[in-house]
Structures are given as structure tokens and as C-alpha cells.
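For the sake of transparency, this paper describes our internal protein records without simplification. The record that follows is passed on verbatim for readers who wish to inspect the format:
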Amino acid sequence: MNRSMRRFLLRPLRVLLAGCLLALVPGCTSNPRDPLVVLGPWTGKEGEAFEAALAELDDGTGRRYTYEGTRSLRETLVSQLEAGDPPDVAILNSIGELTEYARRDKLVPLAEESAERAYAPWSPTLLVDSRRRTYWVPLKVDLKSLVWSKEGASSADPKWCVGMASQATSGWPGTDWVEDILLHQAGPDVYTRWATGRLDWRAPAVERAWTTWARLLGKRSPASVEHSLTTSFEGATGPGGQPRGLLGSPGFDCTHEHQSAFIRYVYAGKDVRVEPSARYLDGRPEERDTFEVSGDMAAVFSDDPAAQVLVERLSSPAGREIWRAEADPAVRPLFPDPAGLPPTTFTDPNEQEIHSLLTSGARTLCFDASDVMAPGLRDAFHRAVLEFFRDPSRRHLASLLGQLETVRGEANGESGGDRTFRPPEDICASPGG
């Protein structure tokens, strides 16, 4: 799509901002206003593509946007909220955190135009102050129930790559394993009860997911365990500072990797293929078309009406097309509903496979369980998988699950205290809602 066509598509939205938003902003003058601040998780090429899309949205609107990308998103946002200077729009991948902010009156409910794009399971409505409303909308999404493998590697006896390090959130590659196994072994209903705090962590289905993970990984030497615990999920750094990916990193004698769709930026152009994870997880045949997903959701933290307009534009077909056109194929965003977008020409067969699975190959989509949980429980889950990876004995697992159950009970107010967290109810849905 050329620039003139993009501007034509966005012209109806620009009208909303014409004349300094006189209809929406009392006292607006011709003086330049501070730019809207957008805080998000994308850095590197992903951040550059999103910034370029924002620059296109700047054109002719009279209002400018500033993007702040960080890998330490939660810590940055918490410090800004504590300082009384939150961003106008923040893009988070945790429904648990978003729910917490909504119930603490930190979020502004979305305007109707954006709320209509609150696709399930990424954007469940919340009951806050006796009113059910929508507080965030997915901008981009990822498919998580995937396995990547070296071309020609046998699936009969996979050797698994595992890199658990990820700055402040180390451990999530392990929680992804446990979640995906539980989803395929126990099904969406049990998965939902567990993710939303209504199932004991010591339940047989939960314990089986952990022990299945240990069995699939097989026996590992102490040196191999430490190597995995201290190696980034991106693998070693190659020429030009680019990550090699675990399948191409020295020190990993492995053929398969369990990882989300986003990792395609590492393997683009390499002899690596992707397929659904179900066949590897010792799950039920009826759940082979069930997939775990994640997403990056936009929420409004500001009373400035222009923040609502920006979210509406970013989530619109025109805004998505601009973003997709600005991104390199390896980091091209996936969207929750491709309706309204022209057909995509795929140059990477892995990207085409992921797009096909997300849009037509899935029967049920369930949101990432740890990103649904209360932030404190999620963090405890991350730490527990790191400990379990080092010592997967039954006795140690029983202790870890008991500790996680204590954290769950405290969040639910089951130990006599106040309930500190109320998660959304619906985190699984058929594609398209």
C-alpha cells in the first residue's frame, strides 16, 4: 500500500482530531501540545517498525506521538504510576497486570470504536464498580503452541533446546512448557480454572504437566542444566550482534525448540521449520487443534481524548496495514482478526504456516496462563520452574507446588485475609471470538 492510499484510509480518523480536537478538548488553543506518550515492549527492529507506524499516524493530525520501548515494561510502568506520571497509552502482554490496574482505577475504559475490536480471548470484559466494560484491545498477537526444529530432524526422538534466561522475567520459557502441556492434556476447562486461580496447584492434572515436562526433556548433566539456566532464550550472539537462536548456538546439541511465533525473527531464512506442538506433549487427540496464545494489548491511562483516538487508529484495519507495511517480514505483526486487511504475500514458509494456524487451523485459543495470573503468582511460577529445572525430583516438586498453592490462596483471600486479585473469567475462545 502506497502512502497516498494510507492517507486516504486514515482521512476519516483525522477528522476526529481536526481543529485541535475542539469538540473534545475544552480550552484547546493553537499552541503546540505535548506529544502523547506510548509505552510498549518492543525494542530493536520491532520497536523501529512500531515507531515508523506512529510517524505515519502523525502525518496531518496536529498531534504527535512519542514511543518509549523497554524490556523492563512492568518495572517502568510501576515507577511512572508511583511518580504520578503514567504514559497516555501503555501496551502490555499481561492480562493479570491489566486487570489489576483496571480494578485500581488506573485505566480508562475504551471508547466504543476500540471496544468493538476487543477480540476473545485477548480482551475479556471486566466487571468493575458494578459495570461490565472493556479496558484494553489487542494490537498484535502471537501463537505459542509451536515447536521449531532443524530441517530434516526426526520428530521420533527430539533433543530439546532450552534457554531460560530473560532479564527480569527469567523462567517464562519453562512456564510456557508447563502451560502448553496442561492445556493439551487436561483441556481448556481445567486450564481455565487453573489459570484463573480456581484450581489447586497440587491437583493431579497440574502435577502431571510438570512431570511430563521433565520426562520430555530427559536426563541432563549439571553442566547442561546450568548452561540452560544462564543462556538467553534468543541463544548466543552471532555476527553483527544478532541472536543465533538456540538451534544454531554453540553448546546446544539439540534439534527441537518449544517457542512462540515471535522467535521467527531469529530463524528467518534459516533451515528451520515450525509445526504445532500438540504431537509432542502427550496430550489428548481431541485437543490437537487447541493453541495457547499471547498478545500485546493497548490500554489508556490518560484522560486525554486523543489517547482514545490513537488506540482506535492503531487497532483499525488502516492502522494495522501501515504497521505491517513498515515492518520487516521477520518481525511483521500478527493480528487477532485479519478482516479488512488485504491478503498477505508470504516470503517465509514459517510465517505462512503460523498465519494459517492462527486464522484457520485452530479450533480453540487460550490465553497464556501465567499472563492471566496475579503478578505475584506469575512471578512465583517463574521462579518455581527455574528451581524445578535444576531439581525435578518428586519431593522437590511437591514442595514447589505447595508454595505456589499458598500464594494462590493468599491472592484469593482463602487464608483469612482480603482477596487481592480477581482475574477475568473467560480466557479461551474459538478464533474470531
Remarks:
- Residues 1-31 have pLDDT under 50 and may be disordered.
- The radius of gyration is 22 Å.
- The first strand starts at residue 36 and ends at 40.
